[in-house]
Amino acid sequence: MTTTRKTLTRTDLAPFAHAVGHTLNDVTRLRGGSKKGVYRLAFQDRSTAVAYVWSPDEDLWDAGPGDPRDPFSHASGLTLFTGAANRLAAAGVRAPRLLHADPTHTHLPADVAIVEDLPGGTLEDLLDGAPAAVPKADALERMAALLDTLHACTGPCFGKVAVVDNGGSSYGGSCTEVVVERALSDLAELTAREPRVTAVHAQLADWLGVLAARIHHRTVRPALIHGELGPDHVRVTPDGDLALIDIEGLMYFDAEWEHVFLRLRFGRHYDALRTEGTEALDANRLSLYRLAMHLSLVVGPLRLLDVGDFHDPEFMRGIAEHNLQQALSLVGRT
Questions:
Q1: pLDDT of 1 strictly over 50
Q2: Hey, which of 58, 136, 236, 256 would disulfide with 37, CB 3.0 to 4.6 Å?
Q3: Residues paired with residue 251 on neighbouring β-strands, in sequence order
């Protein structure tokens, strides 16, 4: 099944402008948001806000509702967003301020949130050379401090913030157990999709087992992590403040999972994000999670290309191919 997005109009979104005390002048769909529609609302007084719209029509993954007790289930929806926004605010980590939340489906057949429109570009834009009021080095220093603040917050157990903070629990006995189970599932799917994986399926499965066997039980509480913290998910305001976006996947988990993703996405800039806390990371978990992450980043893009109308399919194929090569290169490494 292929999902084709229907762009919402001024008429569709006008009631939400009124809900925050404004008259809507114009609507622009913003790039990104593969699990939700993201629209900039321009008001008659020249102020702006952003609308998040969670509906099947806006979700390129065609995944349907996920079970929030699975830490890696489809991270989409108003409940996950508001739970994450509240937790980040309590932690002192900035995200777009929630102006209005509407779960009633009165005006649209979807959950909708209206949030603050943060001026400025993303940290990815800045690292790629886009002009910004704050120097690159300063932004990376602030990003390192943000990570320290985020990961210093812990939860009583692992899982999505919206579940754990409401007294719930997640499936699985540990972060490691959940990661291995997911990696084996991804590997099984890839075996049916990709001949290069089929040829080394046994070696990959065995190597996942070897890496998992090296993990020792830990007593440290799981850290608060974003889950997909690339520089494209960090906005840089004109005064140099940083704010996290696409926060629905916020969860309590091993910090190593976050750092594997950070290293992949920040590349040569990752060293600037190292702090004292980075030195305490478990090398065995990093090795296991790196392989699991690469497998996930092959399967995910391939699924998206199957069911969605992603604006740049060649880019997504490139992500899948790069991570496939990385996963294959890790087999049997000591």
A1: no
A2: 58
A3: 160, 225
- Count the neighbouring beta carbons within 10 Å of the beta carbon of residue 333: 11
pTM exceeding the 0.85 threshold for the entire prediction: yes
Nearest to 290 by CA among 235, 325, 327, 251: 327
CATH 3.30.200 assigned to 10-116: yes
Q: Residue 303 and residue 307: Cα distance in Å, rounded? A: 6
Segment 14-41 shows an average pLDDT of 94
Rounded distance, CA 285 to CA 278, Å?
Answer: 13
For residues 295-318, b (16+ Cβ closer than 10 Å) or e, as one string? bbbbbbbbbbbeebebeeeeebee
Give tens-digit pLDDT for 162-218.
Answer: 999 999 999 999 999 999 999 999 999 999 999 999 999 999 999 999 999 999 999
Domain with residues 123-330, CATH architecture: Alpha-Beta Complex (3.90)
